[in-house]
Structure formats: C-alpha cells, structure tokens
Design a protein that fits this description.
- With 224 residues, the chain is an alpha/beta fold.
- The chain has one domain: P-loop containing nucleotide triphosphate hydrolases (Rossmann fold, 3-Layer(aba) Sandwich).
- The termini are close together.
- Bound molecules: ligand Z5A.
C-alpha cells in the first residue's frame, strides 16, 4: 500500500539575528527536494494579511506604552488569524509548515524578558494555540552581542521596537529560550547558531532526520 506521510509543523525560535529566516529558507529548500511535497514558509508576527497589519503596529511600538500584557494580546490576535487562515488549513492538506517564530517568542519576549506573569502567558497560549502545537521547535542559540551585530549589519533603518531593547533584555531572552529547550526536550532542539550558515543548516537537517523520519519520506514512496 502506498501512503503519503503527513507534513509537520516546525517552528524556529531564538534572539535577534540568530539566523532564523536564513535557516527557514534552507530547510524549506531541502524538504521540497527531499519530499517532493509542498512546504509553507511563514512567520510571526504575521503570515496572513490581518496578522501582517498587526505586525506593522507591534514593530512600530504602538502597544509598548500599554505594557507586555497588551503586547501579548496583540501577538495573540495575530496568531489566531495566522493559525485559522494559513497554518491549520496547510497542515490539514498534509503540507509541512515552517514558521519563523511562534508561541515560544511570547513566552520569552513578553513573559521571561518582558515581565508578564508566566501563568498568564501559559493560559493565553492554551487558548490561542489549542492543539496546534509544533512537532519540532528549533531554538537557534547565539550570544546576543553577536546576534545584534548581525541584525544591525543587515538593517536598512532604525532598530525596531524589540531590537532597541538594552543588552540585558536580550540576555534574558537567550536564557528564556534555553530554559524552554531544557524544559521540553521532546519538542525542542537547541542549535548552535554561532557556526557558519552551512554548518547550522547541516545540524538542522540532521535533527529533522532524527526527530521526524517519516517527514522525509518522498510522496509516492512505499510506506515502511
Ligand atoms: N515577538 C514578540 O515579542 N513576541 C512574539 O510572540 C513574537 C515576536 C512572535 C519580530 O521581529 C519581533 O517580534 C522580534 C520578536 C518579537 N523581535 N525583534 N526585533 P522580526 O521578525 O523583524 O525579527 P527577528 O525574528 O528577530 O529576526 P531577525 O532579527 O530578522 O533575525 P533572524 O531571522 O534570526 O536572522 P537572519 O535574518 O536569518 O540573519 C540576520 C543576518 O545575519 C543576515 O544578514 C544574515 O545573512 C546573517 N546570518 C544568518 N546566519 C548567519 C550565520 N550562521 N553566520 C553569520 N551570519 C549569519
């Protein structure tokens, strides 16, 4: 019997300039060739027209004066639309979805680094994400001094609302992402993002092959 393996929901997390966008594209290209099936690349905040509009407001710092809870609610509003209109329909079609940031960013930015009560963050995540949890989360771990320098080197304008935070905020972020990886080792894998892009991509491919072997089965291959 021939069976086409289902796709998977994979998220990329980490601090500024860790290389998430670069590695999302690299993994997508690899999976498209290896599996011959559609791979959706998306990001948060954003990924759908309504969520992209909320992204513009958030990165301009519109919610900052109202505190981390207001920001978390706006990230959540964007996430609800993104899940409803793009992520869940793609997964239902058996496609793989690679998302540049997801709910762990709310835990790290608004929760651990921003000071929002972790119980509130957990409750919000339960309501917003529901059963659509990532099968795998790749946490790109990098010294924030290096990440901010990378982001500044690429930037064509003023730092956005989060890039403009002080270094100790970014150090708290790094610690928060590392703590998430440690607390949920079945879902998360910590990746050394200080290596060269090719080496990071190779490590990510190896993690995907080890953690999600059925994902790499080509459409039309005989089921094992
Ligand atoms: N946020 C939040 O607070 N709460 C939430 O719930 C969510 C998000 C979902 C979105 O910004 C902001 O929203 C984000 C958190 C917050 N904070 N900020 N700012 P964004 O989407 O505009 O930015 P970002 O997610 O932080 O990504 P980034 O700064 O664009 O970086 P990246 O995607 O991780 O890296 P990159 O674009 O792939 O690479 C950056 C540069 O480094 C570029 O020039 C590359 O060519 C270079 N690069 C990449 N990899 C390497 C390696 N391995 N070596 C050397 N150079 C490299």
């Amino acid at each position: 019997m021939t069976e086409i393996a289902a796709g998977a929901f994979i998220t990329f997390e980490g601090g500024e300039g860790a290389g998430k966008s670069t590695q999302v594209q690299r993994l997508a290209a690899h999976l498209r060739v290896r599996t011959n099936r559609p791979v959706v690349v998306t990001r948060e905040p954003g990924g759908s027209p309504k969520a992209e509009a909320i992204r513009d407001a958030l990165l301009a710092g519109i919610a900052k004066p109202h505190g981390p809870f207001a920001e978390a609610l706006l990230f959540s509003a964007a996430r609800i639309d993104h899940l409803d209109t793009l992520i869940r329909p793609a997964l239902a079609r058996g496609e793989t979805v690679l998302c540049d940031r997801f709910a762990d960013s709310t835990r790290a930015y608004q929760g651990a680094a921003g000071g929002l009560d972790p119980e509130l963050v957990t409750s919000l995540e339960r309501v917003v994400v529901g059963p659509t949890r990532p099968a795998l989360t790749l946490i790109l771990d990098l010294d924030p001094v290096v990440g901010l320098a990378r982001a500044a080197g690429r930037s064509d304008g003023a730092p956005d609302r989060f890039e403009a935070e002080a270094l100790d905020f970014h150090a708290r972020l790094r610690a928060a992402f590392r703590a998430i990886a440690e607390a949920e080792p079945e879902r998360c894998a910590l990746v050394d993002a200080g290596a060269a892009p090719d080496a990071v991509a190779a490590e990510i491919r190896a993690i995907v092959a080890a953690r999600l072997p059925t994902l790499l089965r080509k459409a039309g291959d005989d089921a094992a």
